[in-house]
Recover the amino acids of this structure.
């Protein structure tokens, strides 16, 4: 539908992380370039590498990953495809989850594990400093029952050592964010959020909306994982379907357009292992919804 020769991700607007890293608000999440269950290497490595290279061509300058994606596979592929990195490309990664098998994600936010995880990410990404390092969970039910204070205290130490530029958190509640901010400056929150599923881990839909607004007031980026709508909202003949037809677009593109208009601090990281699907997602940055269209989607909660 849209012309992809004009770097469409640049039409998503920008947000500045931590006051000095300006990124386009349509980024890329590199979880899906691994194997099934986010485990092991991808079935088609060349396609995964092509996806990563295409992101930059489309104007994406923010890529999100984690050491647990694969594990290690996603970070290794990013370096293989894109190193040496283009000027202005920001890579965010995460630590705090272990991998013991496909779709298995035990938490470990102990200082020892986090330091090992960060050192591994630095090696795999071939950098001396991580632009955005995110604590992958604030859940107290982690291996060793490490407190947020101890986990982020270690991350703050590694930041002081020059190994981390900015710190973010993921799967955090509002109260946990407040605790984190007493330890180290937080520039981003990454929780689940999309029009049809706004609840995140240990967060109600209402609390998730409140979190976005709190972050916006404080100049903190909100990075929704799982941004594409599903379930009843995507039903044939529903508001999303009707609006998509009106724009000659896919429902997924309308969902991304809605999220970009939800708040100016939202940075999107839709993931895919397909170049075609990547191009389709990024074209969503060119769609502008009317206030009536935005409201129609906003009112549809399932």
């Amino acid at each position: 539908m849209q012309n992809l020769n004009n770097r469409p991700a640049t039409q998503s607007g920008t947000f500045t992380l931590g006051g000095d890293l300006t990124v386009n608000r349509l980024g890329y999440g590199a979880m899906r370039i691994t194997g099934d269950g986010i485990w092991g290497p991808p079935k088609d490595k060349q396609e995964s590498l092509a996806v990563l290279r295409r992101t930059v061509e489309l104007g994406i300058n923010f890529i999100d990953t984690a050491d647990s994606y694969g594990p290690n596979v996603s970070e290794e592929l990013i370096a293989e495809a894109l190193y040496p990195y283009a000027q202005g490309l920001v890579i965010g990664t995460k630590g705090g989850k272990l991998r013991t098998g496909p779709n298995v994600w035990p938490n470990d936010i102990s200082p020892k594990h986090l330091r090992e995880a960060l050192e591994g990410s630095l090696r795999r990404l071939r950098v001396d400093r991580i632009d955005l390092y995110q604590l992958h969970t604030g859940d107290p039910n982690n291996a060793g029952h490490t407190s947020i204070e101890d986990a982020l205290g270690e991350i703050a130490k590694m930041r002081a050592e020059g190994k981390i530029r900015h710190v973010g958190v993921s799967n955090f509640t509002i109260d946990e964010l407040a605790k984190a901010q007493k330890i180290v400056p937080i520039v981003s929150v990454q929780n689940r959020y999309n029009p049809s599923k706004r609840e995140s881990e240990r967060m109600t839909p209402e609390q998730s909306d409140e979190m976005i607004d709190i972050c916006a007031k404080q100049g903190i980026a909100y990075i929704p994982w799982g941004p594409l709508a599903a379930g009843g909202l995507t039903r044939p003949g529903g508001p999303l379907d009707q609006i998509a037809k009106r724009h000659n677009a896919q429902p997924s593109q309308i969902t991304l357009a809605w999220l970009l208009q939800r708040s100016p601090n939202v940075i999107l990281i839709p993931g895919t292992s397909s170049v075609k699907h990547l191009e389709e997602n990024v074209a969503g940055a060119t769609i502008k919804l009317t206030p009536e269209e935005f409201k129609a989607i906003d009112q549809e909660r399932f």
